[in-house]
Amino acid sequence: MKTLKFKPLVLALSVGMYTVVETSTNASPIVGAELRIVLSEQYRSMIEEDVEEDVEEDVEDDVEDDVEDDVEDDVEDDVEDDIPMDTQDNLVDAFEDQIIMSLDELLEDSDGESTYSDDWLVLADDEQLNALEQQGYSIISTEALKGLGSNLVKLKAPSSFNISKDNPSLALIDSIADVNHVYQLAGRFEPPNGTSFHYNQLLPALSSQQLRLGMIDTSISLEHETLSGANIKLHNVAKEQYSQVKDHGTAVASIMIGQKDGFTGLLPTAQLWSASVFFEHKQQAKITTAEYLVKAIDWMIAENVDVVNMSLAGPPNAVLEQTVQKACDNNLIIVAAAGNQGPNSKPLYPAAYECVLAVTATDQKHKVYRRAARGDHIDIAAFGVNLLHANAT
User: Which of 116, 277, 335, 347 is the most exposed place for a label (fewest CB within 10 A)?
Assistant: First the structure.
């Protein structure tokens, strides 16, 4: 069992783990892995095929087949000669990226866990970053993590797409690497079943607490009347072409710090740091990634947040695990959802990490919610069924 600090506050925040019912306050409320797709040669071939088809359409009525072949070869040679190799490679890379986005497909590792791309994530300090470059890795991007005092590096995966095969070289520089796993919201919205409750009917509001709360979730509707007077600092971590979502984050924020006539959240005077990490994805609806979670946790550390609520769950990830441990070492308390995949579910993360407080849901009769996760990693069971909250509009 993990040590519980600030028990009343943790209990209060745990409500964010499961927003089970869509009820209104009459206010507007996935280390080593082989990935399946090897892209470069496929898409070079696709580009050539497109050129060939265009030429055929233009000349097929006027020339014989042998002339068509000559024209096709000449066009391809001219295109390749005119464009520098680096530019060709950049075009192919861009084309690969566009194909992935247009197909809207998530990849998978050998365990069947979803990943957002075939890139690797690595946590490295400046010296390790230089060593990665000297090892010959192709670095896509680097972002300084001020709170963690490290860098989040995205590497282009070698042709093997297998981290375990390259781990010896990474181990030489003491770097942790993993793929960019996908995570989903842990809360479920279901029709009301019985009487709905204000959470402060079950646990009195801690109205006098001046706390620095954190929430890593969807975005929130700052204009919502239950939140319009709240002290909220919103940080948009997810910068995808897909639209942001606000429903779940708005609901959780209202329970935590919301206030209006007839409705009071648990900590209405607290400050809330909200990191928006979720975005709409056609294949799996609302998702976030290990990359975004690492960046969000880093922001919470840099902002000196006391406790952070994470109502999300997914597979183990080495980079996320190291980030979580560093956050705990920096005295950031992380409260996370155990998940709603049922009593036989395998442990989900980040809740199952040792220093994270894992929360499962109970109803007002103190019975465990039928879809709530169980297991030795669970630290807290808290109310999470038929709770009133704001609906985003």
Answer: 347
Q: pLDDT (tens digit, 9 = 90+) per residue, 131-148?
A: 888 877 889 999 999 999
pLDDT of residue 158: 64
Q: Phi/psi of residue 390, each to 5°?
A: -80, 145
Tell me the per-residue pLDDT of 228-275, one tens digit each, with 9 for 90 and over. Answer: 888 999 999 998 666 678 989 998 999 889 888 777 788 888 999 999
CATH of domain 7-30+185-383: 3.40.50.200
Q: How far apart are CA 227 and CA 27, in angstroms?
A: 10
Length of the chain: 393
- Pick among 3.40.50.720, 3.30.450.40, 3.30.70.120, 3.40.50.300: CATH of 107-182: 3.30.70.120
Burial 350-387 (b: 16+ CB within 10 A, else e): bbbbebbbbbbbbbeeeebbebbbebebbbbbbbbbbb
Tell me the whole-structure pTM to 2 decimals: 0.70
pLDDT at residue number 224: 87
Residues whose CB falls within 8 Å of the CB of residue 73, separated by 6 or more in sequence, listed in order: none
Q: Residue 380's beta-bridge partner residues? A: 359
pLDDT tens for each residue of 333-365:
999 988 766 677 789 999 999 999 998 867 666
SS3 110: coil
Tokens of 203: 């646990």
- Where are the chain's structural domains? 7-30+185-383, 40-103, 107-182
Angle of CA points 99, 153, 173, to nearest 5°: 130
CB 19 within 8 A of CB 363: no
**Count of alpha carbons within 13 Å of 305, Cβ hemisphere only?**
29
Angle at CA of residue 270, ends 267 and 275, nearest 5°: 105
Tokens coding 46: 């696709």
Nearest to residue 314, comparing CAs of 354, 296, 341? 341
No. of H helices and E strands in the chain? Answer: 10, 17
Cα(339)–Cα(17) distance, rounded to whole angstroms?
8
